[in-house]
Amino acid sequence: MERDRIEVALRRIYAARAANDAESILEAFAPGACYRIAGSPESCTLATAHRGEALRPAVEAMCRMFHVRELQPGRMVIDGDHAAVMVDARFTFMPTGEEVRTTMVDFWTFRDGKVVDVIEFLDTAHVERLLAASAPG
User: Fold this and answer.
1) How confident is the model at residue 137 (pLDDT cuts 50, 70, 90)?
2) What's the confidence (pLDDT) of residue 124?
3) Strand pairing partners for 67?
4) Cα-based distances in Å from 112 to 10, 23, 43, 115
5) What is the mean pLDDT of residues 9-34?
6) Please, what are the domains in the chain?
7) In what order do the strands lie in the sheet with 114-121?
8) What are the DSSP calls for 40-102, one per residue?
9) Which residues contact 113 (CB under 8 A, 6 or more apart)?
């Protein structure tokens, strides 16, 4: 895939995420694609791979739980079918209303114009603290 096409696809995906538009995000993914948050599932319940049928509910839940207020993708490093993007973001964690400012790094793999894999590095300890604070009981 050409560099320009990957950059356009990434900008579309990040614009959809900024709009909390799960459907538009999902349109960029190939069947069987994988989205995962890096980290240990024992330390952060969201640090898991969501592939195939599990992708849609994961992306929809992410958009519901972490409502984007600002999202600024930085410089994109694109090499062949792979890309790395540092993203500055401000979210509202909807279950508690807490505002979160963070920086994430996303590593993307494309094939035939579609995303086949993305791994996101973020502060999983903070995410787990948010989830624990919103848990009943």
Assistant:
1) low
2) 87
3) 92
4) 14, 20, 35, 8
5) 97
6) 3-134 (3.10.450.50)
7) 49-51, 29-37, 114-121, 98-111, 82-93, 66-79
8) -TTT-TT-SEEEGGGHHHHHHHHHHHEEEEEEEEEEEEEETTEEEEEEEEEEEETTTTEEEEE
9) 1, 5, 9
